[in-house]
Amino acid sequence: MSTTMPTRLVLLAALLASVAAHAAEPTAVSTSQAAPVQFGVASFNLAWAGSQQDFDRHAAVCKAVSWCDTRPRRQAGQSVPSEEAIRAARQCVADTERLAGGPAQAAMMAPCNAYQGRGASAPPTSSDYAAKLAGLQATIGQLIETQGVRVLAFQEVRSAEVVKQLLGRHAERFGVCDAPHGGFQTVAFAWDRGLAPEGARCSVDTGLAVLDNPGDPDARKLRPGLALELQSAGRRISFLNVHLKSSCANIVPTPIYQARLLDDPAGACKVLNRQVAPLERWIDSVAKHSPDFVLLGDFNRRLDEEAAAAIRPAQVRTDGSDPAGVPKQDADGRVATRYLWPELNDGARSLQLVPLTGVDQGCRGFTGLDHIVLSGPLAARQPAPLGSRKTAVVQAPGQRIETSDHCPRSLMLTF
Prior knowledge:
Elements: H1 5-24, E1 38-49, H2 52-64, H3 83-100, H4 103-107, H5 126-147, E2 149-157, H6 160-167, E3 174-178, E4 186-192, E5 200-205, E6 225-232, E7 235-243, H7 267-273, H8 276-289, E8 293-298, H9 303-308, H10 313-316, H11 340-344, E9 351-353, E10 356-359, E11 370-375, H12 376-380, E12 388-390, E13 409-414
Parallel strand pairs: 1-2, 7-8, 10-12
Antiparallel strand pairs: 1-13, 2-4, 3-4, 5-6, 6-7, 8-11, 9-11, 12-13
Protein backbone atom coordinates (compact mmCIF):
# COMPACT_ATOMS: atom_id res chain seq x y z
CA MET A 1 0.00 0.00 0.00
CA SER A 2 1.44 3.38 -0.97
CA THR A 3 2.28 6.05 1.63
CA THR A 4 0.32 9.31 1.40
CA MET A 5 2.05 12.68 1.06
CA PRO A 6 1.13 13.90 4.61
CA THR A 7 2.46 10.67 6.09
CA ARG A 8 5.77 10.99 4.19
CA LEU A 9 6.15 14.55 5.43
CA VAL A 10 5.61 13.44 9.04
CA LEU A 11 8.21 10.68 8.71
CA LEU A 12 10.72 13.07 7.12
CA ALA A 13 10.21 15.62 9.88
CA ALA A 14 10.76 12.93 12.54
CA LEU A 15 13.98 11.79 10.84
CA LEU A 16 15.36 15.33 10.65
CA ALA A 17 14.54 15.92 14.33
CA SER A 18 16.38 12.74 15.31
CA VAL A 19 19.48 13.75 13.32
CA ALA A 20 19.44 17.22 14.90
CA ALA A 21 19.14 15.74 18.40
CA HIS A 22 22.13 13.45 17.89
CA ALA A 23 24.17 16.30 16.45
CA ALA A 24 23.51 18.35 19.58
CA GLU A 25 24.77 15.59 21.92
CA PRO A 26 28.40 15.90 23.13
CA THR A 27 30.72 13.63 21.19
CA ALA A 28 32.83 11.24 23.30
CA VAL A 29 36.55 11.81 22.76
CA SER A 30 38.43 8.62 21.96
CA THR A 31 41.29 7.72 24.28
CA SER A 32 43.75 8.22 21.43
CA GLN A 33 42.48 11.82 21.01
CA ALA A 34 42.27 12.67 24.72
CA ALA A 35 43.90 15.94 25.62
CA PRO A 36 47.50 15.39 26.79
CA VAL A 37 48.34 15.80 30.46
CA GLN A 38 51.62 17.39 31.55
CA PHE A 39 53.15 16.59 34.94
CA GLY A 40 56.51 16.34 36.64
CA VAL A 41 58.30 13.05 37.39
CA ALA A 42 61.29 12.81 39.76
CA SER A 43 63.76 10.25 41.06
CA PHE A 44 65.36 10.89 44.45
CA ASN A 45 67.85 8.78 46.43
CA LEU A 46 67.14 9.67 50.07
CA ALA A 47 70.47 8.41 51.49
CA TRP A 48 69.49 5.91 54.22
CA ALA A 49 66.22 7.65 55.12
CA GLY A 50 64.39 6.07 58.03
CA SER A 51 62.20 7.41 60.78
CA GLN A 52 63.47 9.27 63.82
CA GLN A 53 62.87 6.08 65.82
CA ASP A 54 64.96 4.10 63.30
CA PHE A 55 67.86 6.47 63.88
CA ASP A 56 67.58 6.38 67.65
CA ARG A 57 67.75 2.57 67.62
CA HIS A 58 70.69 2.74 65.20
CA ALA A 59 72.53 5.19 67.48
CA ALA A 60 71.97 3.05 70.58
CA VAL A 61 73.47 -0.05 68.96
CA CYS A 62 76.30 1.86 67.28
CA LYS A 63 77.29 3.58 70.50
CA ALA A 64 77.55 0.16 72.17
CA VAL A 65 79.94 -1.10 69.43
CA SER A 66 81.95 2.15 69.42
CA TRP A 67 80.61 3.15 65.97
CA CYS A 68 82.64 0.41 64.26
CA ASP A 69 82.48 -0.19 60.50
CA THR A 70 80.94 -3.42 59.19
CA ARG A 71 82.72 -2.98 55.86
CA PRO A 72 86.51 -3.44 55.64
CA ARG A 73 88.19 -0.11 55.01
CA ARG A 74 91.04 0.32 52.55
CA GLN A 75 93.87 2.62 53.43
CA ALA A 76 95.25 5.12 50.93
CA GLY A 77 97.12 3.28 48.17
CA GLN A 78 95.61 -0.11 48.97
CA SER A 79 93.77 -1.99 46.20
CA VAL A 80 92.24 -4.38 48.74
CA PRO A 81 91.67 -4.09 52.52
CA SER A 82 94.31 -5.51 54.85
CA GLU A 83 93.72 -8.71 56.80
CA GLU A 84 93.53 -6.61 59.95
CA ALA A 85 90.76 -4.45 58.45
CA ILE A 86 88.85 -7.56 57.36
CA ARG A 87 89.07 -9.08 60.86
CA ALA A 88 87.91 -5.82 62.46
CA ALA A 89 84.92 -5.62 60.11
CA ARG A 90 83.94 -9.21 60.85
CA GLN A 91 84.06 -8.53 64.58
CA CYS A 92 81.96 -5.42 64.06
CA VAL A 93 79.35 -7.46 62.17
CA ALA A 94 79.20 -10.06 64.96
CA ASP A 95 78.89 -7.44 67.72
CA THR A 96 76.27 -5.43 65.82
CA GLU A 97 74.13 -8.49 65.09
CA ARG A 98 74.29 -9.60 68.72
CA LEU A 99 73.17 -6.22 70.05
CA ALA A 100 70.53 -5.72 67.33
CA GLY A 101 68.88 -9.07 68.14
CA GLY A 102 70.22 -11.18 65.28
CA PRO A 103 71.25 -10.93 61.60
CA ALA A 104 67.72 -10.15 60.34
CA GLN A 105 67.28 -7.28 62.80
CA ALA A 106 70.76 -5.92 62.05
CA ALA A 107 69.96 -5.95 58.31
CA MET A 108 67.04 -3.60 58.97
CA MET A 109 69.36 -1.06 60.60
CA ALA A 110 71.61 1.44 58.81
CA PRO A 111 75.34 0.68 59.23
CA CYS A 112 77.10 2.70 61.90
CA ASN A 113 78.98 4.87 59.39
CA ALA A 114 75.90 5.65 57.26
CA TYR A 115 75.45 9.18 58.60
CA GLN A 116 79.07 10.11 59.32
CA GLY A 117 80.84 12.24 56.77
CA ARG A 118 84.59 12.16 56.22
CA GLY A 119 86.50 13.47 59.21
CA ALA A 120 83.45 13.61 61.49
CA SER A 121 84.58 14.90 64.88
CA ALA A 122 81.79 13.25 66.85
CA PRO A 123 79.00 10.70 66.29
CA PRO A 124 75.72 12.10 64.92
CA THR A 125 72.94 12.89 67.35
CA SER A 126 69.16 12.59 67.26
CA SER A 127 68.84 16.32 66.53
CA ASP A 128 71.34 15.97 63.67
CA TYR A 129 69.13 13.32 62.13
CA ALA A 130 66.00 15.42 62.63
CA ALA A 131 67.69 18.13 60.54
CA LYS A 132 68.30 15.62 57.74
CA LEU A 133 64.63 14.60 57.74
CA ALA A 134 63.58 18.26 57.70
CA GLY A 135 65.81 18.85 54.67
CA LEU A 136 64.31 15.86 52.84
CA GLN A 137 60.77 17.03 53.56
CA ALA A 138 61.56 20.56 52.36
CA THR A 139 63.21 19.26 49.18
CA ILE A 140 60.25 17.02 48.34
CA GLY A 141 57.89 19.91 49.08
CA GLN A 142 59.74 22.11 46.59
CA LEU A 143 59.57 19.43 43.87
CA ILE A 144 55.80 19.19 44.31
CA GLU A 145 55.05 22.89 44.76
CA THR A 146 57.45 24.60 42.35
CA GLN A 147 58.12 21.96 39.71
CA GLY A 148 54.73 20.30 39.47
CA VAL A 149 56.12 16.86 40.30
CA ARG A 150 53.26 14.38 40.73
CA VAL A 151 55.13 11.06 40.55
CA LEU A 152 58.18 10.50 42.76
CA ALA A 153 60.43 7.42 42.72
CA PHE A 154 62.50 7.04 45.89
CA GLN A 155 65.57 4.94 46.62
CA GLU A 156 67.36 4.23 49.92
CA VAL A 157 64.25 4.62 52.04
CA ARG A 158 63.21 2.38 54.94
CA SER A 159 59.47 2.08 54.21
CA ALA A 160 56.30 3.61 52.82
CA GLU A 161 55.58 5.01 56.27
CA VAL A 162 58.77 7.07 56.11
CA VAL A 163 57.75 8.41 52.68
CA LYS A 164 54.38 9.49 54.09
CA GLN A 165 56.18 11.40 56.85
CA LEU A 166 58.46 13.10 54.34
CA LEU A 167 55.52 14.18 52.16
CA GLY A 168 54.43 16.38 55.06
CA ARG A 169 51.38 18.49 54.25
CA HIS A 170 51.08 16.77 50.86
CA ALA A 171 50.64 13.28 52.35
CA GLU A 172 46.85 13.24 51.99
CA ARG A 173 47.08 14.01 48.26
CA PHE A 174 49.52 11.24 47.44
CA GLY A 175 49.28 7.48 47.29
CA VAL A 176 52.40 5.62 48.50
CA CYS A 177 53.77 2.10 48.05
CA ASP A 178 57.09 0.38 48.68
CA ALA A 179 58.81 -2.90 47.85
CA PRO A 180 59.02 -5.14 50.96
CA HIS A 181 62.65 -6.09 51.50
CA GLY A 182 64.82 -7.81 54.08
CA GLY A 183 67.23 -4.87 54.24
CA PHE A 184 67.01 -1.27 55.43
CA GLN A 185 67.18 0.19 51.92
CA THR A 186 64.28 -0.30 49.54
CA VAL A 187 62.50 1.56 46.74
CA ALA A 188 59.16 3.35 46.93
CA PHE A 189 56.72 5.48 44.93
CA ALA A 190 54.49 8.42 45.76
CA TRP A 191 51.92 9.64 43.22
CA ASP A 192 49.24 12.30 43.11
CA ARG A 193 45.94 10.42 43.29
CA GLY A 194 44.39 12.99 40.96
CA LEU A 195 46.54 11.62 38.11
CA ALA A 196 44.85 8.23 38.23
CA PRO A 197 41.12 8.56 38.94
CA GLU A 198 40.67 5.09 37.43
CA GLY A 199 43.16 3.51 39.81
CA ALA A 200 46.82 2.77 40.48
CA ARG A 201 48.62 -0.52 40.98
CA CYS A 202 52.05 -1.27 42.48
CA SER A 203 53.91 -4.52 41.85
CA VAL A 204 57.28 -5.78 43.07
CA ASP A 205 59.92 -7.35 40.83
CA THR A 206 61.99 -9.73 42.95
CA GLY A 207 64.24 -10.73 40.04
CA LEU A 208 66.52 -7.74 40.67
CA ALA A 209 67.00 -8.80 44.31
CA VAL A 210 69.91 -11.09 43.47
CA LEU A 211 72.16 -12.48 46.20
CA ASP A 212 75.46 -10.72 46.78
CA ASN A 213 77.01 -14.19 46.77
CA PRO A 214 75.09 -16.73 44.66
CA GLY A 215 76.80 -19.60 46.49
CA ASP A 216 75.52 -18.50 49.90
CA PRO A 217 71.73 -18.70 50.41
CA ASP A 218 72.11 -16.59 53.58
CA ALA A 219 73.92 -13.78 51.76
CA ARG A 220 72.43 -10.29 51.58
CA LYS A 221 69.96 -9.65 48.77
CA LEU A 222 69.97 -6.50 46.66
CA ARG A 223 67.00 -4.18 46.41
CA PRO A 224 64.01 -5.42 44.37
CA GLY A 225 62.38 -3.38 41.62
CA LEU A 226 59.03 -1.64 41.99
CA ALA A 227 56.50 -0.82 39.25
CA LEU A 228 53.70 1.73 39.45
CA GLU A 229 50.90 1.55 36.87
CA LEU A 230 48.47 4.47 36.54
CA GLN A 231 45.19 4.48 34.63
CA SER A 232 43.85 7.80 33.41
CA ALA A 233 41.11 8.46 30.84
CA GLY A 234 41.41 4.90 29.60
CA ARG A 235 45.17 5.23 29.09
CA ARG A 236 47.88 3.35 30.93
CA ILE A 237 51.38 4.50 31.90
CA SER A 238 53.90 2.57 33.99
CA PHE A 239 56.93 3.62 36.02
CA LEU A 240 59.77 1.24 36.91
CA ASN A 241 61.90 2.17 39.92
CA VAL A 242 65.39 0.63 40.25
CA HIS A 243 68.38 0.82 42.58
CA LEU A 244 71.11 -1.37 41.10
CA LYS A 245 74.38 -2.61 42.59
CA SER A 246 76.94 0.09 43.38
CA SER A 247 80.71 0.35 42.81
CA CYS A 248 80.82 -0.66 39.13
CA ALA A 249 79.85 2.69 37.71
CA ASN A 250 82.03 4.07 34.93
CA ILE A 251 83.84 3.24 31.71
CA VAL A 252 85.89 6.45 31.78
CA PRO A 253 88.58 6.30 34.51
CA THR A 254 88.85 9.07 37.11
CA PRO A 255 91.46 9.83 39.78
CA ILE A 256 89.20 8.02 42.28
CA TYR A 257 87.33 5.38 40.28
CA GLN A 258 88.78 2.77 37.95
CA ALA A 259 87.04 2.12 34.63
CA ARG A 260 85.11 -1.15 34.79
CA LEU A 261 83.04 -3.13 32.31
CA LEU A 262 80.35 -5.55 33.44
CA ASP A 263 82.65 -8.52 32.80
CA ASP A 264 85.23 -7.06 35.22
CA PRO A 265 86.34 -9.54 37.92
CA ALA A 266 85.59 -7.01 40.70
CA GLY A 267 82.93 -8.36 43.03
CA ALA A 268 80.54 -5.43 42.55
CA CYS A 269 80.64 -5.82 38.76
CA LYS A 270 79.86 -9.52 39.04
CA VAL A 271 76.76 -8.68 41.06
CA LEU A 272 75.61 -5.90 38.70
CA ASN A 273 76.19 -8.28 35.79
CA ARG A 274 73.73 -10.75 37.34
CA GLN A 275 71.06 -8.04 37.44
CA VAL A 276 71.15 -7.48 33.66
CA ALA A 277 68.95 -10.41 32.57
CA PRO A 278 66.30 -9.88 35.29
CA LEU A 279 66.15 -6.18 34.40
CA GLU A 280 65.64 -6.92 30.70
CA ARG A 281 62.95 -9.50 31.41
CA TRP A 282 61.12 -7.03 33.66
CA ILE A 283 61.23 -4.25 31.05
CA ASP A 284 59.93 -6.61 28.35
CA SER A 285 57.13 -7.86 30.60
CA VAL A 286 55.95 -4.32 31.41
CA ALA A 287 56.26 -3.15 27.80
CA LYS A 288 53.90 -5.89 26.57
CA HIS A 289 50.90 -4.48 28.42
CA SER A 290 52.09 -0.90 28.95
CA PRO A 291 54.04 0.43 25.92
CA ASP A 292 54.19 3.85 27.59
CA PHE A 293 56.63 3.48 30.47
CA VAL A 294 59.34 5.33 32.37
CA LEU A 295 62.39 3.53 33.77
CA LEU A 296 64.07 5.62 36.46
CA GLY A 297 66.13 5.48 39.63
CA ASP A 298 69.69 5.00 40.83
CA PHE A 299 71.34 2.78 38.22
CA ASN A 300 74.78 3.11 39.86
CA ARG A 301 76.12 3.13 36.31
CA ARG A 302 77.19 6.00 34.04
CA LEU A 303 74.74 5.26 31.25
CA ASP A 304 75.58 8.63 29.69
CA GLU A 305 79.21 7.55 29.24
CA GLU A 306 78.15 4.33 27.56
CA ALA A 307 75.67 6.15 25.31
CA ALA A 308 78.33 8.67 24.26
CA ALA A 309 80.87 5.94 23.48
CA ALA A 310 78.96 4.78 20.37
CA ILE A 311 79.62 1.14 21.19
CA ARG A 312 79.10 -1.20 18.23
CA PRO A 313 76.67 -4.11 18.70
CA ALA A 314 79.48 -6.66 18.35
CA GLN A 315 81.29 -5.04 21.32
CA VAL A 316 78.38 -5.22 23.75
CA ARG A 317 78.85 -8.89 24.64
CA THR A 318 82.06 -10.80 25.15
CA ASP A 319 80.96 -13.49 22.68
CA GLY A 320 80.12 -10.93 19.99
CA SER A 321 76.49 -12.07 19.82
CA ASP A 322 73.66 -9.71 18.90
CA PRO A 323 72.60 -7.81 22.05
CA ALA A 324 68.93 -7.95 21.00
CA GLY A 325 66.85 -9.82 23.55
CA VAL A 326 67.65 -11.13 27.02
CA PRO A 327 71.17 -12.56 27.22
CA LYS A 328 71.73 -16.16 28.28
CA GLN A 329 72.67 -16.72 31.92
CA ASP A 330 75.10 -19.23 33.37
CA ALA A 331 74.41 -21.28 36.50
CA ASP A 332 75.12 -18.26 38.72
CA GLY A 333 73.06 -15.85 36.62
CA ARG A 334 75.99 -14.12 34.91
CA VAL A 335 75.75 -12.98 31.29
CA ALA A 336 78.22 -12.10 28.53
CA THR A 337 77.31 -8.40 28.74
CA ARG A 338 80.01 -5.72 28.98
CA TYR A 339 77.88 -2.56 28.73
CA LEU A 340 74.51 -1.93 30.35
CA TRP A 341 72.97 0.82 28.18
CA PRO A 342 73.49 -0.74 24.72
CA GLU A 343 72.32 -4.06 26.17
CA LEU A 344 69.05 -2.46 27.27
CA ASN A 345 68.62 -0.26 24.20
CA ASP A 346 69.35 -3.18 21.91
CA GLY A 347 67.15 -2.57 18.88
CA ALA A 348 64.58 -5.15 19.98
CA ARG A 349 63.19 -2.47 22.27
CA SER A 350 63.35 1.29 21.73
CA LEU A 351 64.44 3.40 24.71
CA GLN A 352 65.36 7.06 25.09
CA LEU A 353 67.87 8.15 27.74
CA VAL A 354 66.71 11.59 28.88
CA PRO A 355 69.71 13.96 28.83
CA LEU A 356 70.60 16.14 31.79
CA THR A 357 70.09 19.71 30.60
CA GLY A 358 70.13 21.67 33.85
CA VAL A 359 71.78 21.47 37.26
CA ASP A 360 70.87 23.82 40.10
CA GLN A 361 73.62 25.85 41.70
CA GLY A 362 74.58 24.18 44.95
CA CYS A 363 73.72 20.70 43.69
CA ARG A 364 76.46 18.41 45.02
CA GLY A 365 76.96 14.70 45.55
CA PHE A 366 77.07 11.79 43.12
CA THR A 367 76.84 12.53 39.40
CA GLY A 368 75.89 10.31 36.50
CA LEU A 369 74.24 7.54 38.53
CA ASP A 370 70.59 8.65 38.56
CA HIS A 371 68.77 8.42 35.23
CA ILE A 372 65.36 8.74 33.61
CA VAL A 373 64.64 6.56 30.56
CA LEU A 374 61.50 6.71 28.39
CA SER A 375 60.07 3.97 26.21
CA GLY A 376 60.27 4.75 22.50
CA PRO A 377 56.52 5.33 22.04
CA LEU A 378 56.36 7.68 25.03
CA ALA A 379 59.52 9.55 24.00
CA ALA A 380 58.15 10.11 20.50
CA ARG A 381 55.24 12.12 21.91
CA GLN A 382 57.35 14.46 24.04
CA PRO A 383 57.90 18.04 22.87
CA ALA A 384 61.45 18.85 21.82
CA PRO A 385 63.95 19.36 23.25
CA LEU A 386 63.83 16.47 25.72
CA GLY A 387 65.71 17.19 28.94
CA SER A 388 65.82 16.78 32.71
CA ARG A 389 67.22 18.78 35.60
CA LYS A 390 68.86 18.15 38.95
CA THR A 391 67.59 20.15 41.91
CA ALA A 392 69.76 21.08 44.90
CA VAL A 393 68.60 19.56 48.17
CA VAL A 394 67.55 21.82 51.02
CA GLN A 395 70.20 21.90 53.74
CA ALA A 396 70.62 24.15 56.76
CA PRO A 397 73.96 25.92 57.41
CA GLY A 398 76.20 23.70 59.52
CA GLN A 399 73.96 20.65 59.10
CA ARG A 400 76.04 17.67 60.34
CA ILE A 401 74.18 14.90 58.48
CA GLU A 402 73.76 15.89 54.85
CA THR A 403 70.21 15.80 53.53
CA SER A 404 71.28 13.47 50.73
CA ASP A 405 74.37 12.67 48.67
CA HIS A 406 72.16 12.67 45.55
CA CYS A 407 70.25 15.55 43.99
CA PRO A 408 66.74 14.66 42.78
CA ARG A 409 66.45 14.41 39.00
CA SER A 410 63.21 15.37 37.29
CA LEU A 411 61.54 16.06 33.95
CA MET A 412 58.22 17.40 32.73
CA LEU A 413 56.35 14.56 31.02
CA THR A 414 53.57 14.89 28.45
CA PHE A 415 51.13 11.98 28.45
